Amino acid sequence: MRLVGIAAAVAALVSLIGTPLLIRILARHGYAQAIRASADGIAYPDHESKRGTPSMGGVAILIAILAGYFVTHLVVWRPVTAAGLLILFLMLGLGLVGVADDYLKIFKQRSTGLRARTKIVGQAVVAFAFAYLSLQFTNSDGVTPASLAVSFLRDTSIVLPIGVFLLWIWFLITATTNGVNLTDGLDGLATGAAFASFLAYVFIGIWQYGQSCFIEATSFCYMTANPIDLSIVAAAAAGATFGFLWWNTAPARIFMGDTGSLALGGGIAGLAVFTRTELLLPLIAGLFLITTVSVILQVGSFKLTGRRIFRMAPLHHHFEMLGWPEIQIVVRFWIVQGLCIGAGLTLFYAEWVSA
User: 301-311: b or e for each residue (b if 16 or more CB lie within 10 Å)?
Assistant: First the structure.
């Protein structure tokens, strides 16, 4: 618990202090994201008040996560692990894809950023590299960070061929990163939801460490490689998002941009893979899944029937168009995320109790 506390505290402090410094730098140079405005009969929510707000705040989040992780290991003089470094690699790699997207939004004033195909290719390169490397390193007990087996609350009996495994991990990462990206449309919405997801993985990592098969081999122990280091990464990410939320909550003084949303989505997906809770991800990342499904339903319905299910997708914009205040939407969506995570952790704990 001491390691987790140090990681969270350092990351929160760096994010809390570093974000306003980044705001000043970005604002001084006028680095603000383009805002979509209603035109040609297409109505968008009125976000004119957000014009001029600096973006690319994900840089502060990533720096805070790195500081939380590495300072913790230096303070206690504990060696880093392949599992922890691979999660950081995934977040940084996807963050760089986000930087390219934010660059176009800020410097070229293209509100849509990278073309969808280009962004998917960038995500795929990072995801495949992460998936492949996750099978190449073993801990002191000979266990790799990831497993070829599909996992729910722990590894199942379904073992994938290496090629299918790579595609499976790519799908999980792409789905989660895009889910966080789509949810990042209102002040503090994605940041607060991601904070809750990382807190869930802090709990899962600590619990798996206490019940590790490498400490005591029992019929209900966990074969997770380096679970305490995964909880350190999760704690650093939780602390970083918590500190950033202070400046990102309504009215936001900075947006995380794709730099932040892709990195955080990658971190959540990576933790699901390494904690052997892949099929639990739809609950731990519940709000992001709901948001993604709302977009899929909207696009599918319009292409098939010519009609839209929602006034606008993603779902939070639908409620904006209905006249709900932004802060009300954010808080209620946070509650939905909390309920999803609560259900996921209940399943996780109930499985252990029944075992």
Answer: eeeeeeeeebe
Q: What is the DSSP string of 228-264?
A: HHHHHHHHHHHHHHHHHHHHHSSSPS---HHHHHHHH
What does the buried/exposed string (b/e) look like for 268-278 if buried means 16 or more CB atoms within 10 Å of the residue's CB? bbbbbbbbbbb
Neighbouring residues of 75: CB distance < 8 A, sequence distance ≥ 6: 6
Phi first, then psi, for residue 140 (nearest 5°) are: -65, -15
Neighbouring C-beta atoms of residue 217, cutoff 10 Å: 9
Q: Looking up tokens 């997906």, which residue turns up?
A: 269
Out of 120-124, 139-143, 161-165, 226-230, least confident range? 139-143
Cβ count near 233 (within 10 Å)? 31
Separation in Å, CA 63 to CA 11, 19, 84, 131, 268? 8, 10, 15, 23, 17
Q: Label residue 118 by pLDDT band (50, 70, 90).
A: confident
Which residue matches tokens 């280091």? 229
Q: What is the mean pLDDT of residues 242-249?
A: 96
Structure tokens at 292: 């993604």
Amino acid in position 79: P
Q: Enter the tokens of residue 275.
A: 């904690």
263: which 2 tokens?
A: 């990195």
Question: Considering only 78-82, 121-125, 141-145, which range has the smallest mean pLDDT?
Answer: 141-145
Instruction: Output the six-digit token pair for 101.
Output: 């997207």
Residue whose token pair is 């006028």: 30
Cβ-contact 268, 284 below 8 angstroms: yes
150 membership: H or E segment, kind and range: strand 149-151
